[in-house]
């Protein structure tokens, strides 16, 4: 069931616009796709161009602190078992490696470039997410 009292279309629209704008800037100005798994993976690999990758990851890490300057932080509560969260994180990492990219790279940048491979990857990501929610609500949860 959808909790309509917490539906925030304007902030969601603003967040989506900022993600799209930043992805467009990165590919236009740097020729790079804003896929988080590739950015972080190549940041940890030897050699290569680390400067912009460090700046990108620093922006991801520091942005919640910047947000706190302007608004109260949201109330975050984790109700699931810790081992499920760890398993979910490992499965997402494995899926990103298997799919040669993550949802940000394929779903945001790849679909914008009309990449058939990114469409297939995004459909698989979404189907796996739907299946995981269904399993958690009906079998495991």
Automatic annotation (TrEMBL):
The chain crosses the membrane at residues 12-31, 51-70, 82-99, 119-136. Its main location: membrane. The keyword Cell inner membrane applies. Keywords: Cell inner membrane, Cell membrane, Membrane, Transmembrane, Transmembrane helix, Transport. It comes from the Bacteria. InterPro entries: Sulf_transp_TsuA/YedE. It is found in: Cell inner membrane. Pfam families: Sulf_transp. It is a multi-pass membrane protein. Belongs to the TsuA/YedE (TC 9.B.102) family. This is YeeE/YedE family protein.
